[in-house]
Write a structure and sequence with these properties.
The complex is a heterodimer of chains A (about 250) and B (about 250). Chain A has about 250 residues and is of the alpha+beta class. Chain A is built from 6 helices and 9 strands. In chain A, helix 1 crosses helix 2. In chain A, about 30% of the residues are buried. The chains are: A alpha+beta (about 250), B mainly alpha (about 250).
Amino acid sequence: MDKNSNAYTFIFSIAMVFVVAIVLSFLATSLKPMQSKNVKQEKMQNILSTFVGDSIEVDGQMKELTRELASEKFDEYIKNQYALNNNGENVESANAFDIKLSNEIKKPIEEQVFPLYEAEYKGKSFYVIPLRGSGLWDAIWGYVALKDDLNTIEGVIFDHKGETAGLGAEITTDWFQERFKNEKIYNDKDKIVGVEVKKGYSGGNDKDDNKVNAISGATITGDGVTNMMEERLKRYKPFFQKLKNTKLAIR
Amino acid sequence: MSEKKQYKKSKKEKKKDEMILFLSKSEEKKSFLSKENRKLLSDPLDDNNPITVQVLGICSALAITVQLKPAIVMTVAVIFVMAMGNVVVSLMRNLIPNRIRIIVQLVVVASLVIIVDQILKAFLYDVSKQLSIFIGLIITNCIIMGRLEAFALGNKPWRSFLDGVGNAAGYGVILIVVAFFRELFGSGKLLGYEVLGHKGLTLADSTGLYALGYENNGFFLLSPMALIVVGLVIWYQRSRNRKLIEEN
């Protein structure tokens, strides 16, 4: 058959498209379970590491909190999972762990569901809140663990899709996330403002000013973190208020 | 000594040698790593380097050389895609219709990149997170299309394989050199380790060079610096390898 004829060209391209489509879709479907397992385990690892840190004590030994270990221990440490609406009421129909924040933040506030994880570790309670916002190039997200007072931050985890390596991508590093430890999310007027990532911050180790030092060269990613913190955290205020009231009542 | 020995070779052996020579000539078969084939591997590393001599693949050299680790993983990924892509296209070289050959090459490269991406996501999740968008960027790497078009379409699979590995390695060497300097001067680290000491909030908190008042050069983190470093590498290479200097 003439290789330069139209018929041959058509047949060749149709055959090629079929072969490629079959190979790729076979690969994608057969690898899908493993990929989603990785994603799920990573989510558990992120949630746990906000309050347990990088390693965890198993049978008297400190072990690195790997994805596998995190998925084993997840149910042990996470006592309650809430899916809250805008008024701080639990939505029965939704499962907190399965909520995709990337979908939620596109909806109007009244229709959104806000996940919250209540954890207990070494006799202390923590409240872990997932965050999501946008950085310079693409989405950024993370988790914040609050201490029992619902104000002080125990730890944070940030991640990103495509921030600049060496600049914005540094939000995933320990030294940056360390700065958020013990920061407060309420300002002195009892309003949730989160923590501002401030350029040229001079407050040193002041933990009550709702500000941390920014990464030089990563202004827009830093602003993204600031906005994400305030925007997501303030939605939990009604629930926090209720929680505080019940605690007072018990006392 | 050895000459004498060779001279003493029996007639039978000589005939055998001739037979092998004849066979290899008739089938154009050479040993797997003959001198010519070795040249396919070594040439792109220096004399015909895709980045510094042909000035291809500059786009990704800018994007992923801020840190050493992504540069190394990118090198490995490009070696895989380029070698496999060359082999696949070389195997199909007599079937591909001339008019749509670029599209066919693109489909081959894109499928290989998707395969790499999917496998990394399933088995090496951490590496795949580290690379994130860079894996997809392999598709746009002009060196790959360049080698498919210029070499694989006209050569046998094994030679194409060597050519792919050689060119990808030549690309990777420059990537790693540039990333080395950019990470060292830009963030004072290598592979994430603080080799120049730790930079604290104040001079008193700092150790190593930072305690003496050294500052990281933020310019190295920006893309223009990659071009300047590549330029310096080209300068160094030409001062060492006189063959590369054009006469005019």
